[in-house]
Structures
1.
Amino acid sequence: MYNEALNIEHALAAAVEALTKYADDYEIVIVDDASTDDSPALVARAAAENPRIKMIRHAKNRKLGGTLRTGFAAATKDVVLYMDADLPFDPDVLGRALRAMHVTGADLIAGYRLDRTMEGWRRAIYSYFYNGLIGMLFGWPHRDINFSFKLMKREVLEAIELRSEGSLIDAELIVKAKNRGFAIQQIGLDYFPRIRGTSHLSSPSVIFKILAELVRLYPEMRARNPQTPAPPAPRPMKDLKEA
Ligand SMILES: Nc1nc2c(ncn2[C@@H]2O[C@H](COP(=O)(O)OP(=O)(O)OP(=O)(O)O)[C@@H](O)[C@H]2O)c(=O)[nH]1
Ligand SMILES: [Mg+2]
């Protein structure tokens, strides 16, 4: 979360609603990336009312990769979902994604945006080339690398070391998980572009940082290291809910 005072309370309420419906036990970890608006105070208020909500605050702005790594390190449950704070999808899709994990036995379910027309052609073109570039470099075609819906078993996060500070983090996660032999499936999701607050992560400096980190991390992202056995037979839905 970065300066999301206009979105965060509603995003939290929608997440709590979905988690209550689909999980017996849950936690919500919000990483505040040194926001300068009221959003940390709003999260603190929600956390005082619901002890399952935790907030971790960065003293300095670290961008997406550093922030996700803080959040992943703090997550304690068996299944972890990461989501942007501007509510780009309805958290109720968690039910479908858990179901997809159960039915396919995948270790990671990645969401892709079914329709992006509202975002404008410039961003659609950037994404098209970025998805193509990652596919070409690592041999893993993936439809929507940077979409913020990734549901994964905690084994995935325990097995790989993520090092991006910027927005390369999504590609690093997908590529390293695949290289370790984890099974990934994709599901199409309704995407709701931001209508409140300010966009921060689609600037030229963010894209430049992705390319710089790609050069730095390319060798380790190329290393195939399948130490993971074939995915186990799917667990009953009931177990996932209890997890
Ligand atoms: N950690 C971190 N997160 C940020 C920063 N800027 C934005 N974010 C968060 O990252 C997520 C995505 O940022 P957005 O600005 O929505 O980027 P986007 O989804 O590519 O673009 P729009 O939705 O069109 O604004 C949101 O949860 C933001 O709060 C930042 O500097 N650091
Ligand atoms: Mg957004």
2.
Amino acid sequence: MNLIRCTAAECEAMAAVHAQAFPASWRDDEFEDLLEGAGIYGFLATDEAGAPLGLILCRVAAGEMEVLTLGVATAARRRGVARALIAASLPAARALDAAEVFLEVAVDNDPAIALYKGLGFRSTGLRKSYYDRRPQGFVDALVMRLDLNAAAA
Ligand SMILES: CC(C)(COP(=O)(O)OP(=O)(O)OC[C@H]1O[C@@H](n2cnc3c(N)ncnc32)[C@H](O)[C@@H]1OP(=O)(O)O)[C@@H](O)C(=O)NCCC(=O)NCCS
């Protein structure tokens, strides 16, 4: 697996792999706009042939890193891609003076919650009806936090 720090050149691949991980995907021009934002950076994981496997997009502001999105293509899951993407994002957050990481995750997203807990994230709160899954309804989000001073990677 290769991990590439994202630039405009990666946005098409980011959008393609995002669409494999989420029902409501983001377009490549949306990724391009996001990457131009202050404190925003991302990594793309690819296989040896350059095919995209997963992505992470993060934003650092006021000493906090927020994971904006993290997704891995269905066929590439349970091979450590997400763990590697998060590991790559942490030194980049520290380099931008972040001391902690926050993210939201749907309360019913057991794979992601297991991933984050395994990396040392802890639940710090609940956002009621955070995700719009109409017509099924709304789903709460757990807010999870990682202390970058305590984290290994
Ligand atoms: C959640 C997601 C990013 C995990 O990606 P991944 O590359 O498969 O995760 P990894 O292989 O790095 O898994 C690392 C650890 O997370 C946990 N984990 C990951 N998927 C899991 C699953 N389906 N069930 C239980 N635990 C899981 C395990 O502890 C795993 O370690 P192990 O394989 O050694 O047991 C992926 O399932 C995904 O893209 N889901 C859809 C989008 C999404 O929910 N994104 C997160 C939004 S907050």
3.
Amino acid sequence: MLEQTALDGDFAKRHLVNPVLLRMLGDLTRQRVLDASCGNGYLSRILAGRDATVVGVEPGQLLFDFAVEQETIAPRGIQYVQADLCDLPDLGGPFNAVIASMVLPAIPTWTGAMRACVHALKPGGLFLFTVNHPCYEQLWPTWREHGGYRTHRYLTEYEIPGPSGVDFHRTLSTYLNQVTSLGCQLTELAEPGLDPDAAIEAPTAIDAYVHLPNFLIVAARRTT
Ligand SMILES: C[S@@+](CC[C@H](N)C(=O)[O-])C[C@H]1O[C@@H](n2cnc3c(N)ncnc32)[C@H](O)[C@@H]1O
């Protein structure tokens, strides 16, 4: 599984997340970028390939070891640090951009993690985070079962068991109000839909992703 997603993530990341993140980041030449909870390091490697100076933080041993191994096999100048986002060591100075992709829903103490991401930025730096869209959580499973999206609760936080651990549902306003309370100004929200042509290539018919957004992608700038 780590190998399968090592190049550019899974189908959904390839088609829905990566293109938006890369567009929002723009030219990365000589930019210091933090991939906060980098997982297997796929995004770190894409960013380094665009001439960014990348630090990837990851606490999980297997994921960290895999990312380091990829750097040993094909060095790209990426520095990997094994750490918890809520307890970051000195990472060598502030960043032009910090990305936390699909990370905050996995962390129970997520406000500390978000604060650490924002504090790691230079003033004016760009903070990007992605989450499963809070309004359409578990989009594909409910679409498959009901032929449409269904939910019966939204307003309270609840746990979503997944193959690699528990995620936490939180509301849209919870995430957006927290990032603005940390001194960031929202610059863009993206709710990408799948190009119907790409849906044809999908391993299963992912028509839900054509009609409803599976992800929310948030761009914010640190103002102070
Ligand atoms: C769904 S994965 C996303 C990984 C990667 N950003 C990606 O898009 O493939 C969630 C990540 O959050 C990490 N994580 C969970 N709790 C964390 C914490 N307290 N601090 C830092 N990372 C954490 C996990 O180890 C995992 O790499």
